[in-house]
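Internal ticket #5521
Category: modeling
Description: The requester needs a full-assembly model to guide mutagenesis choices. All entity lines are attached below as received. Residue total reported by intake: 631.
Assigned to: D.W.
Attached entities:
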Amino acid sequence: MLDTQPEGYTTADGRKIGGVVMEMKNITLRFGGVVAIKDISFDVREGEIRAIIGPNGAGKSSMLNVISGFYHPQEGEVWYKGARRPRMRPYQVARQGIARTFQNIALFEGMSVLDNIMTGRLNHMKSGFFSQALWWGPAAKEEAENREKVEKVIDFLEIQHIRKTPVRRLPYGLKKRVELARALAAEPSILLLDEPMAGMNVEEKEDMSRFVLDVNDEFGTTIVLIEHDMGVVMDLSDRVVVMDYGKKIGDGTPDEVRSNEEVIKAYLGVSHD
Amino acid sequence: MIYREAGDFKTTYAADNQTFPIKGDRYAYYLVLALALGVMPLIITDYWTNAIIIPFLIYTIAALGLNILIGYCGQLSLGTGGFMAVGAYASFKLMTAFPELSIVFVVLLAGLCTAAVGVAFGLPSLRIKGFYLAVATLAAQFFLIWLFTRTPWFFNYSPTGMISAPTRTVFGYAVTGPRASAVSMYLFCLAFLIGLAWLARNLTRGTLGRKWMAIRDMDIAAEIIGVNPLIAKLSAFAVSSFYVGIAGALLFVVYLGSVEAGEAFGITVSFLVLFMVIIGGLGSILGSFLGAFFLVVGPVLLKILLVDNLRWSSDLAAHLEIMIIGLLIIVFLVLEPHGLTALWRTIKEKLRLWPFPH
Ligand SMILES: Nc1ncnc2c1ncn2[C@@H]1O[C@H](COP(=O)(O)OP(=O)(O)O)[C@@H](O)[C@H]1O
Ligand SMILES: [Mg+2]
């Protein structure tokens, strides 16, 4: 249905979705004998919230790791902004404007919340070694400018009160939020979120859902979101890829996916918490 | 914004980001600087200069360097002694090959040579971590000392195998050699320390410092935000070795005057500087000062107390010293990786809220 609208479309709630910004083509990823991803293709459109769902071990995180350059698939291609992406290291992917969070939080525990989020701005900070060493002109100016951007993110995610707190002292839920803040600070074109709501209580989940929607709405950021709880995803996302045992078993709008025979079969007996 | 000191509000991000955001700290810093530059030169004696002050200044530079590598970038090194030797031998070769070259440039160039050597020996850090990296740097330590003792070119074929620093002057005052006065040696070393501490502070609070700390805390996450691990690690090795090399050069030209690599820059020196960093506080500029002060002054005071006053044998006193240091290392490693700096911070946090702790 959507393939007939190459220039994009407008969602029911009035957001503009653009053309394809990233495309995974026939990705196969093996670890020794284990096939984590089997010949999967899907695309991501500009400005949409694209979910990947599936039970534990389905290969969702592996897919995100392929996108961000941690894993290199044995077969298949990643296309980004209309060009085939060569094999890249994670930091090169980051510099192309793809930011992410991890299923198991990956913050810098020894640094303050502020410094953690400031690291998200690294790719926007260009002052040279000597300018930094002498704290002279460009370096000091750049620091202040980027701090301002970071403060906007801090306000947006409502974490002003923990700005100077060392990350290691934060509770789990707030750490997840700081990790999102660090990714947002990079002003990415695509934001990859690996189970942002896992391990949260109901209230925290609601907050996080709101933030995800707000980010997408206010900044137009394309979001690829992993979740294994179907309920949450259906409310949030524009389109959903369903994975099971490394294979794609469904792809479409939440409604299409919900009524897909294979998806129902895969999810039968899987408990939803 | 209430947790900040009452009345001391920041109106710009630059003000919030300065080195000493709290007024009291800032004044204390200016006071120390004024004392060090204005008062100390008038009151220091030869004995205290040689026993405590010069070694403290020089070892603080080395500790700053090692702290950048270990405390900020998380790369363990046991090669400090060897890198100090590079600085010392580089300064010797430069002094003898270019007698006209100012001693200031000699020391700086010796630092640059050491930075280059540090980068070369830092290459393994791209593949190996932690314990294995420590072993690799230990190999560097032994290799470098071996190189300097076995290659006559490095000590200009002197029959004793030692290198000696000729007299060099700054603004007409001798800072090296036998004619150098305590005050000129003191000011020479102090100038380097102030400059280098200031540079270290700037580097660690900016983009590069955050890259180093990101690598230290979680290298995978560092890569995902766009840090190139190659550049981050090697830049830490380069900057760190630059400091360590300058410390080695100063130790040779100013303090010792003549050295033999194995004796002056052996593995014990590597551990001494490492202990300074651990006791003072990993990842802290202030900690480098505290650690160096503690390990330079402590043994001297202990000796005065035990040997000179209580008439212990110096052997016994030396053993006690080693035991105390060993105990402190264990205590700090297990209980407080941020060392003396953390104790200092706790005291300050209490003071800030005093007299109303709630
Ligand atoms: N680095 C790895 N080495 C070996 N096997 C892996 C690795 N990463 C993932 N796998 C395997 O790939 C499969 C998919 O894992 P994962 O992508 O984490 O699933 P999900 O995120 O959907 O729960 C699992 O069988 C897992 O054991
Ligand atoms: Mg996963």
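Resolution: model delivered.
Comment from assignee: The interface with chain B takes residues 68, 70, 89-91, 94-95, 99-100, 102, 106-111, 115, 118-120, 122-123, 125, 127, 129, 132-135, 139-140, 142-144, 147-148, 151, 164, 182, 186 of chain A (CB under 8 Å).
Ticket closed.
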